[in-house]
Write a structure and sequence with these properties.
- By secondary structure, the protein is mainly alpha-helical.
- About 60% of the residues lie in helices and about 0% in strands.
- The chain has 5 helices and no strands.
- The longest helix is centred in the C-terminal third of the chain and has 31 residues.
- It is elongated, with a radius of gyration of 30 Å.
- The N and C termini lie far apart (about 85 Å).
- The relative contact order is 0.09.
Length: about 170
């Protein structure tokens, strides 16, 4: 650092950004101020662009995983799949999705130590979507299997409605 003519004290630099007469405002105190300071420290290295890229990559990985599970379900079922088999395969697909597809990106995010919150949010949304799909499918198929759903065709009774083979 440069020294002035006396040699005992470092020279003061002039800031072109701040007015030298301006006084720094006192730092706020209290719970909310401490919370805002802690949040600001945590978000120092945060990038919205990185968060969007992570979310898109995890969503693409989830899409590929869900397409693989759906493809397996379609090939296992074929053309002659009955309602009970569809319901069973839907439960197996739900278990595969929640047991295999969801944990992989979470594990990668934990090991990489970056984007954990974004990955957790995307995976949480996938879990909610898969559970809603499973519940709605079961709600639709169980009355058809039991013969209690209203048949769309007046030629058939509710129990004999052609929903498909009841195996």
């Amino acid at each position: 650092m440069a020294r002035n003519a006396g040699g005992s004290e470092p020279a003061r630099y002039i800031s072109w950004v701040k007015d030298p007469a301006a006084v720094e405002p006192p730092e706020a105190s209290g719970r909310w101020a401490a919370w805002r300071r802690a949040l600001a420290r945590r978000l120092d290295g945060f990038s919205w662009f990185d968060a969007v890229i992570i979310a898109v990559c995890v969503a693409v990985l989830d899409l590929i995983g869900v397409l693989i599970v759906s493809g397996w379900q379609t090939t296992a079922c074929g053309d002659s799949c009955g309602l009970r088999t569809q319901l069973h395969l839907m439960h197996v697909a739900l278990a595969l999705t929640l047991g295999v597809v969801v944990p992989l990106p979470l594990l990668i995010a934990l090991l990489a130590r970056k984007g954990r919150v974004v990955v957790a949010v995307v995976q949480g949304l996938l879990c909610v979507g898969v559970l809603i799909n499973a519940v709605s499918t079961e709600h639709r198929l169980v009355p058809r299997i039991n013969g209690t759903a209203h048949c769309w065709n007046d030629l058939y009774s509710d129990a004999d409605c052609p929903w498909g083979p009841k195996d």
